[in-house]
Each structure stands twice: as C-alpha cells, then as structure tokens.
Description:
Layout: E1 6-12, H1 25-44, E2 51-60, E3 68-77, E4 83-92, E5 95-108, E6 113-114, H2 119-125
Antiparallel strand pairs: 1-3, 2-5, 3-4, 4-5, 5-6
Amino acid sequence: xxxxxxxxxxxxxxxxxxxxGHVNHAxxxxxxxxxxxxxxxxxxxxxxxxxxxxxxxxxxxxELRYPATVTVHSALQKVRGGSLEVVAxxxxxxxxxxxxxxxxxxxxxxxxKPTRFPPDFLAAIQGYxxx
Length: 131
C-alpha cells in the first residue's frame, strides 16, 4: 500500500450524478485530476513541466451520491527519467470508493515528444516519492 502524503477534499455536486442517481464513473477521474493538479501546484508552484496522462486505471469500489464530501489521498511512485505514477484512493469518510493509478509522462510541447524531467521538478518531488 502507498504511503499517501497528499489529501485533497471536494464536494460532490448534484450535477456529478447520472441517471442512475450516483456519481458517474467519469466524474471519479475528474476528482483524481483535480487532486493531481493540487498536489503538483503545492510541490512545484509554477515550475511544473508539461505532464500528460499515458495510462489511467481506476477500480470502482463503492458508489457515491450527492450530497457528500470526498477526499483523494495521493502518493508518488515509480519515478523514472521522464515518467512517474500517482497512486490514489477516493474516500467518503473512512469508506474507500475507488483506487487508482495514473502514469504521467513529461512531455516537450515544442518537439511533441516525451522528455526527461527537469532537475528542479525532480528536486521538488524527491522527498515525496514512495516505492
């Protein structure tokens, strides 16, 4: 199990639900995205390289319904030259609702190719990586 170091909280909105009366599966990915953005903003501020999602896996464990507040617990793992994995859990209180892994790749938007992480980014995340 990952050593989660970052916690992001957000309210479930009425519009997050689908016709079945529970939070739509795609909204779970938005919660994870919002948590990742907050995590990297806290660690790196504006010195963030372009990171793109190479792979996303989400295991749905329990449904969510409005009204609720969810927390996304995140950790960084498997940092390689230009890729890393963010592992996360979405919880409502103590109840685990989803477990996810997102593989991110550093991307050079000018060359349109993957690239290595810049040294300042690696320094900013160094103390937060668990393997």
